[in-house]
Design goal:
Layout lengths: L6 H25 L7 H22 L2 H22 L6 H4 L1 H4 L2 H10 L4 H24 L1 H6 L5 H4 L2 H19 L11 H23 L4 H26 L1 H19 L5
Amino acid sequence: MARWQQPRQTRLIVYTTEISITTWNGLATALCPSGRIQPRDALIFAIGLALLSFTLLSIFANLLSACLAMSGIVTYVLVYTHWLKRHSTQNIVIGGAAGAIPPLVGWAAVTGELSWTAWLYFLIIFLWTPPHFWALAMMIQKDYAKVGVPMLPVIKGDEVTAKQIWLYTLLLIPVTLLMVYPLHVMGAIYTIIAVGLGSVFVSKAWSLLQAPSDQQLARSLFKYSILYMMLLSAGMAVDSLPFTHQMMTALTDHLATALSNLPIG
């Protein structure tokens, strides 16, 4: 299978999408509860943004990316926020699919299709979401309890949450290596980065499992999870650069030459 094509453009679109969503969520959280923006006005503005994004992607990218973006919005608003968030402890597991859609949007916008690599990136973010958000929920579970949001640590407690974080982390790490085998879209640089980052992630999840009520461990895991996803994605981009391919090819050829010159017997 060919190496990952056009990584830099894909990363740019994915990151821009995620930044836009994060910025709007922050503004809505800060302004709507204070009464400075009426819910009706916020709804109209949100619908306008959704339609505008669909139109822009349809015109300047393709219909597939536009439909994927709209599916992410619908999943986040209806499935996660309206239905799961206040009714299930598994809210961020199932709702996490909405947060994993941006890579599909970016991939479709650049390539016009969805490959196994794109779906694997989706799966990586999907599995990363529970440890990330549950660590945050353990830190601020009193706030969730006050407003009636049934996050896992609020309903089941810290010990159960820490076990779930541990299990999802153990699932996540080998899945990241599927980029190397059997897909063969990543090489040695990504492998080293993924294994190194994953080892730290597992270590932090294990420490939290041993002391589930330790807020500092939960905070450390939450902060690291952000760094983990950023560096893992950066590792994909670096591994896909032509310079990296040339460097690894030259290194492999040099090593092969050195081994062939070794005396045998």
